[in-house]
Amino acid sequence: MTAPDEPAFEAPWHAQVFALTVHLNETGHFAWPDWAKAFGATLKRHGLTRELNGGDDYFIAWLETLETLLDGQGLADAQAVETTRAAWERAFLSTAHGAPVTLVQDA
Amino acid sequence: MPHDHDHPHSLLPPDPALRVKALETILTEKGLVDPATLDEIIDTYQNRIGPKNGAGVVARMWHDPAFRDAMLSDPMPMLRELDLYGRQGEHMVFVENTDAVHNVVVCTLCSCYPWPLLGIPPGWYKSDAYRARIVREPRAVLAEFGVDIPKGKKVRVWDSTAEMRYLVVPQRPEGTDGWGQDALAELVTRDSMIGTGLAMVPTP
Hints:
The complex is a heterodimer. Chain A is mainly alpha-helical. Chain A is built from four helices and no strands. Chain A has a domain at about 10-75. Chain A is globular and about 40 Å long. Chain B has a two-stranded parallel ribbon. In chain B, strands 2-3 form a two-stranded parallel ribbon. Chain B: This is nitrile hydratase.
């Protein structure tokens, strides 16, 4: 039975990576069938070693697919993503709890 | 990483969340992504699109024979008119349950799903277990969902793709003669439109 208040997304970042992908598709950066094919391949690869539960692991596969796609297209190369990720990590760790976290890029 | 101390700094989001933020930062700086549009997409899928959309269409099909016929032959013109079509360009097919056949939908490749009509798929729809087993042993899986299909009834499994997505039209429950469309829509569950459930039976 459908639980009426089941949230659409279990975690905020699931929603964010979903929206990012839909947005990039709608602005013409990739066709949806190509996305589905690449995503299906990632899921299959991840599913070889363990049974995917359709929750966090589903969106981890989603994110990996998007990262690979954007790296391949030169829209966000892997090195830049890692640098920016690390900058966000530092921003969270150096911002007082409760204060808005903003990114200070030193790279 | 465990955090036992009081939080002098902001709670660090999980690693994938930081990676998503990194992508968003890079793409926004390049002008490829508009953060306001991202918020709008999230709001749409979180709050405005859900199984209620599909339930309204199914109830109307039960209620209005001409609409039913149109939806079964080609639902796309009507879905466009109702603003219930997919921005990802997929084609929809409505498959109707009858006394002779029960339909159920899966995506074995990934998790293609009729978003505009049902919203974001539930976790089990995306799980390996469902995606693999519903094809191999549909009756056993349906039984686990509490749907027992009699021996004489055929079970048809529809495998969605990026281009083609399916919605099951459940059988209209007995005892609903003369019901209005809105009352009928209340009986149409998400699972009944995936095929892992039936429409609710009204309590007399």
